[in-house]
Design goal:
By secondary structure, this protein is an all-alpha fold. The protein has 3 domains: 35-92; 96-137; 138-221, no CATH class. Helices cover 60% and strands 0% of the residues. The protein is built from 10 helices and no strands. α7 (139-153) runs antiparallel to α10 (200-220). The longest helix is centred in the last third of the chain and has 21 residues, at 200-220.
């Protein structure tokens, strides 16, 4: 017996057939960029993301490579002055390398990363050497970040695992802990002291000692 129910597919089109005039998976191609487009892209990027001048210029260069540049009525393509465009946004306060470096350094420190990782991150973002020196973590900040990482990873006096009886396993566990803290950008001297500490209070006193020294310097000035 043949069912009288109509086929759910549209008449004249097989199931799954694409609509006429559009190839399957086709993407709309964006037009080449004008100088006005580039200004809009720069403003949109600066409004959405904390950035440096170097990162913004790299972003605009990538957009030009992806989309190309539009020609004028005479068919000429004039390369835009990206450094001048970026400099204008810096002048207007939309882009601030100093503010970015300060924010990034504090963020990394609060997550337990050391001075070397802060330096690498700022350099990668295009922050100049002078600003990288200004915002490099001092001794107290470096100790705080190292202690924070050790506490987060349960290393040194924060460890909740029993020390292995086997000397080889003990050594491997120690080397793994050292490697983890070095990868996070901490000084070996700091890593060594924290991992050798018997009590959390010993590390806290060590951090407080550096904080007291920095306060003494500030008062002297």
């Amino acid at each position: 017996m043949v069912s009288g129910k109509a086929n759910s597919s549209s008449p004249g089109r097989a199931a799954g057939e694409d609509r006429p005039g559009r190839s399957r998976g086709a993407r709309r191609v964006k037009p080449p960029l004008t100088e006005a487009n580039l200004r809009d892209l720069a403003l949109h990027y600066a409004a959405r993301f904390a950035s440096t001048g170097a990162r913004l210029e790299a972003y605009l260069s990538r957009k030009i490579r992806e989309r190309g540049l539009a020609a004028d009525a005479d068919g000429r393509v004039i390369a835009p002055d990206l450094p001048a465009l970026v400099a204008r946004l810096v002048e207007l306060g939309y882009v601030d390398d100093d503010a970015y470096a300060r924010m990034r350094a504090r963020d990394l420190g609060s997550r337990g990363y050391g001075a070397r990782r802060v330096e690498e991150s700022l350099r990668h973002a295009g922050v100049g050497e002078g600003l990288r020196r200004v915002h490099a973590p001092g001794e107290a900040a470096s100790r705080r970040a190292a202690a924070l990482l050790a506490a987060k990873r349960r290393l040194g006096p924060w460890s909740t695992s029993a020390e292995p009886a086997d000397p080889l396993l003990r050594r491997k566990a120690h080397e793994k802990a050292v490697a983890a803290m070095l990868r996070a950008g901490h000084q070996y001297e700091h890593v060594k002291l924290i991992l050798a500490a018997q009590r959390v209070e010993d590390v806290e006193e060590w951090v407080a000692e550096a904080e007291g020294d920095e306060e003494g310097i500030d008062e002297a000035w």
